Amino acid sequence: MRSFKAAQAAALKDFLSGQLSISGAGAKKLLDQKKVFVNKQRVWIAGYRLNAGDTVEVQDSPTAARYAIAAEDSDYLIINKPAGIIVNEHPHSLENMLRADLKNPRLVAAHRLDKDTSGLVIFAKNYAAFTKLVEVFKNLGVEKYYRGLVQGDLSSRLAKHFTLTQNINGQSAAARFTIIKSNKLASYFEANLITGRKHQIRLQLSRAGFPLLGENTYQTGALEQAVYRQIPRQMLHSCRLKFTNPCTGQILQAAARDPADLQNALKKLGL
User: What is the pTM of this model?
Assistant: First the structure.
């Protein structure tokens, strides 16, 4: 985390460009990635007007990592995705990387993780396998487990094992949670998704008053704790997947250990 004091009034993008010796486009990219704080509050508006004495903090960008094949059979791949990569529907997506690297243009993502969520995601090796797995997902036949970090002490208000059931965009959403470790600053948890709604874990925990550390959509207030502002991305990791291959009847499963940035955050927070 780099910190600067504004000596005079200025537009935030121009201030960043001058302080970091980068182009205006580079400064705008940092803002678009929501890596900038002004007086402890995340700001992403390029024309935001700084006043003399304002404190501007810029998160360090994480080191790029490569994907890894965690498990494979004749029809599916389970890939351990690093944070910062879009799963599909983008020229630089993981789907396109895999198609090129594995020389299989028919490969298709069977489900998604957010760009800044790390961990396990399933790919089908052809469209027939994809359509069969869609039905498995619909019938809740894929076991999905996540680990993550939230602001605050979950154990102060919730039992060690708890379930959150809420409505998300008109659909019921449910997940089981286990508190692994917690202190006054933060809590380390595991979640087992019962349903699979967009941003489900992020939304449910934020609504419960415990937003993910690094959350930049559902938590926009000031972050008084300096360590919170040092978290480079939303602390959510897809750690285990298991399902029965609908083509063969054989079980395919994989596990992925916590990535380095999550391990570092745990250490910083004393967990």
Answer: 0.85
